[in-house]
Amino acid sequence: MQDPLRVVVADDHPVILFGAEHALLKFPGLEIVGRARQSTELVKMLQTAACDVLVTDLAMPGGQYGDGLQLIGYLRRNFPNLPIVVLTMLENTALLKRLSELGVTSVVNKSDDLSHIGLAVQHVSRNLEYMSPSVKASLDALRMNSGGKTDEVMLSKRELEVVRLFVSGMTIKEISEQLNRSIKTISTQKNTAMRKLGIDRDSELFQYAQSNGLLNLSSHAPDDLGDAS
């Protein structure tokens, strides 16, 4: 008889954590061996408990090792052989590309049926890629719109500066005054950045900024948003 796959689940929302566990338990051969609410608990658990697959939320603030891409990068460096299934509410293509570059081959959107979490665990345990339906749709749209090319998403230095100030809580008017540019110019640069990132709403821009560490960037941030972590 084959040993069960040992799964650790991490999410800072109790409802999602419960839902993910409930969905996983419907799959025979999976065993939940640990639960974490933030990165400190998660890393300590991975250091002490045997784990075959990690299922983790992307936005999980409050822990010693951060969250978002910062946490994923830490996990990939320190647990390079551990398959990871990322849970997120965010589907923008720039974020999906960064996750792929970090070695994440499975992303499940929380808006999809939670049964996809179990399917994702089964796939990554066999070194197979798995994307839930809405994530796959976003990636397919990216490939279609770019003619099959998925070049690095690049923001200009000025666009990145505007995004950083906007997500820090400043209004368009305040940004224009600080940078000595017109309100129209600031608005255009913000909208251009959002279009490049595949983002439609300000709330998604805040989520993306958190996941990419933009909330902590200095005014000397790099031109390439893809390098922010």
Automatic annotation (TrEMBL):
User: What PROSITE patterns would the database entry show?
Assistant: HTH_LUXR_2, RESPONSE_REGULATORY
Domain HTH luxR-type: from-to ranges? 148-213
- A Pfam family for this UniProt protein? Response_reg
- Response regulatory domain span: 6-125
Annotated keywords: DNA-binding, Phosphoprotein
Q: Which residues carry this modification: 4-aspartylphosphate?
A: D57
The family database entries (SMART domains) matched by this protein are listed as:
HTH_LUXR, REC
Name the lineage. Bacteria, Pseudomonadati, Pseudomonadota, Betaproteobacteria, Burkholderiales
Q: Matching SUPFAM superfamilies, A to Z?
A: C-terminal effector domain of the bipartite response regulators, CheY-like
| Entry's Gene Ontology molecular function annotations | DNA binding
Q: Which GO terms describe its biological process?
A: phosphorelay signal transduction system; regulation of DNA-templated transcription
Q: What is this protein called?
A: Response regulator transcription factor
